[in-house]
């Protein structure tokens, strides 16, 4: 007589994209519960966090949600937010780039010196400086992808080297003020239409239309491919929720000075990055490399080129972000890009939902994470908290985001999706 204990074969994992959701309100709750159980939290934690942060500081100050303060937050997130978008691309590979703060500072320094001290056309100076940043990224990527030096070491060396370049370019004076009414100076101060309320409403409406249209297009493509697709009712609900948020934001911005240029540029870069990652073959290659290098190589992907190009994108966006930081502080100096700029950008990407383990994330996470970081910083400034306290709270939020990412990843593995 056999004494072997029968084993239970676990149910095979099912691709959630192939699940047919129930119709009606019950379907929404069922799908929400499935995502929570399988660790697919998405943007929920950061959205809830933003609401909690806003409620706490509004209760403490009584003016956190004032139009002028919200306008300032949307302007101040541009520099770190652009750097964070580049961080998202790097994290999708499961790698890191420690040089982005120094690249931002060097780019701002090169731009200012070329335009102010050398008398070069400011637009040309900007183009040359960002091109230099992209070349720096290509250099990092080459040593990492071709030579095999770990990305941590390459970018750590870059952090030191490009900070030295920044100091060398600026010279003994160490500071170059932005030309009055110049391109860089206007990056942080310009409002579309000189404060005309039409632009904020137009921006919100166009964004709503593009979002809803994109959702409908996705649904039709999935239906044509024989895959379950979102019903029109769900698309209408999602678009409606986004629409309400955007219209309220437009109203608040118009209570102050209208639509700020930094917000438009940041949202545009985020949307473009999202399009590249989700709609192009190149974007799918990035996810594939982040998901497994050997599998990506065997499928015919040029892994080395993907890695090099990602570091070029991250460095280029860091350089662009450096120009916004220079605009906000009125000059390029030796301290630009130092301090907590790099950590804030990395924290923004991770807090927004991009995984540190590679293969999962969106550029929109950079925008949401930057809003969280800047909201905390602004709120603590308003209650006159010490900078040490700001660092401690930001660090705690970052740790919580990483813990949440780790738990989510482990939960997905237990459901056969890790």
From TrEMBL:
<feature type="transmembrane region" description="Helical">
    <location>
        <begin position="152"/>
        <end position="177"/>
    </location>
</feature>
<keyword id="KW-1133">Transmembrane helix</keyword>
<feature type="transmembrane region" description="Helical">
    <location>
        <begin position="389"/>
        <end position="407"/>
    </location>
</feature>
<comment type="function">
    <text>Part of the binding-protein-dependent transport system for D-xylose. Probably responsible for the translocation of the substrate across the membrane.</text>
</comment>
<dbReference type="InterPro" id="IPR001851">
    <property type="entry name" value="ABC_transp_permease"/>
</dbReference>
<feature type="transmembrane region" description="Helical">
    <location>
        <begin position="41"/>
        <end position="61"/>
    </location>
</feature>
<dbReference type="GO" id="GO:0005886">
    <property type="term" value="C:plasma membrane"/>
</dbReference>
<feature type="transmembrane region" description="Helical">
    <location>
        <begin position="197"/>
        <end position="214"/>
    </location>
</feature>
<feature type="transmembrane region" description="Helical">
    <location>
        <begin position="304"/>
        <end position="326"/>
    </location>
</feature>
<dbReference type="Pfam" id="PF02653">
    <property type="entry name" value="BPD_transp_2"/>
</dbReference>
<feature type="transmembrane region" description="Helical">
    <location>
        <begin position="235"/>
        <end position="253"/>
    </location>
</feature>
<keyword id="KW-0997">Cell inner membrane</keyword>
<feature type="transmembrane region" description="Helical">
    <location>
        <begin position="338"/>
        <end position="357"/>
    </location>
</feature>
<feature type="transmembrane region" description="Helical">
    <location>
        <begin position="123"/>
        <end position="145"/>
    </location>
</feature>
<keyword id="KW-1003">Cell membrane</keyword>
<dbReference type="GO" id="GO:0022857">
    <property type="term" value="F:transmembrane transporter activity"/>
</dbReference>
<keyword id="KW-0812">Transmembrane</keyword>
<keyword id="KW-0762">Sugar transport</keyword>
<feature type="transmembrane region" description="Helical">
    <location>
        <begin position="73"/>
        <end position="93"/>
    </location>
</feature>
<keyword id="KW-0813">Transport</keyword>
<feature type="transmembrane region" description="Helical">
    <location>
        <begin position="259"/>
        <end position="277"/>
    </location>
</feature>
<keyword id="KW-0472">Membrane</keyword>
<protein>
    <recommendedName>
        <fullName>Xylose transport system permease protein XylH</fullName>
    </recommendedName>
</protein>
<feature type="transmembrane region" description="Helical">
    <location>
        <begin position="364"/>
        <end position="383"/>
    </location>
</feature>
């Amino acid at each position: 007589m056999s004494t072997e204990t029968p084993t239970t074969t676990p149910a095979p994992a099912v691709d959630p994209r192939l699940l047919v959701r129930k119709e009606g309100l019950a379907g929404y709750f069922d799908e929400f519960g499935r995502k929570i159980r399988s660790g697919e939290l998405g943007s929920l934690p950061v959205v809830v966090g933003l609401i909690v942060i806003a409620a706490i500081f509004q209760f403490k100050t009584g003016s956190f949600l004032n139009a002028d303060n919200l306008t300032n937050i949307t302007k101040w997130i541009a520099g770190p937010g652009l750097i964070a978008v580049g961080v998202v691309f790097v994290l999708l590979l499961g790698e890191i780039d420690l040089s982005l703060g120094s690249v931002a500072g060097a780019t701002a320094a090169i731009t200012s010196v070329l335009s102010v001290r050398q008398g070069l056309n400011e637009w040309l100076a900007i183009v040359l400086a960002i091109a230099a940043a992209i070349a720096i990224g290509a250099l990092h990527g080459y040593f990492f992808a071709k030579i095999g030096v770990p990305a941590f070491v390459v970018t750590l060396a870059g952090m030191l080297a490009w900070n030295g370049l920044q100091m060398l370019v600026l010279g003994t004076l160490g500071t170059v003020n932005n030309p009055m009414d110049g391109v860089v100076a206007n990056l942080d101060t310009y409002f579309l239409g000189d404060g005309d309320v039409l632009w904020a409403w137009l921006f919100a409406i166009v964004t709503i239309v593009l979002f809803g249209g994109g959702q409908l297009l996705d649904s039709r493509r999935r239906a044509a491919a024989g895959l379950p697709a979102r019903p029109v009712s769900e698309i209408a609900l999602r678009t409606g929720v986004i629409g309400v948020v955007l219209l309220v934001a437009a109203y608040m911005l118009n209570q102050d000075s209208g639509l700020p240029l930094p917000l438009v540029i940041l949202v545009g870069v985020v949307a473009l990055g999202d399009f590249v990652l989700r709609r192009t073959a190149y974007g799918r290659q990035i996810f594939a490399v982040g998901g497994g290098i050997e599998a990506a190589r065997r499928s015919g992907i040029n892994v080395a080129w993907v890695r090099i190009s990602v570091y070029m994108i991250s460095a280029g966006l860091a350089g662009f972000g450096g120009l916004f930081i220079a605009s906000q502080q009125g000059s390029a100096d030796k301290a630009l890009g130092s301090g907590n700029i790099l950590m804030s950008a990395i924290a923004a990407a991770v807090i927004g939902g991009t995984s540190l383990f590679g293969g999962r994330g969106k550029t929109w996470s950079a925008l949401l994470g930057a809003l969280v970081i800047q909201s905390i910083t602004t709120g603590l400034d308003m209650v006159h908290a010490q900078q040490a306290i700001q660092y401690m709270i930001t660090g705690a939020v970052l740790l919580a985001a990483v813990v949440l990412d780790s738990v989510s990843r482990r939960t997905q593995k237990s459901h056969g999706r890790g």
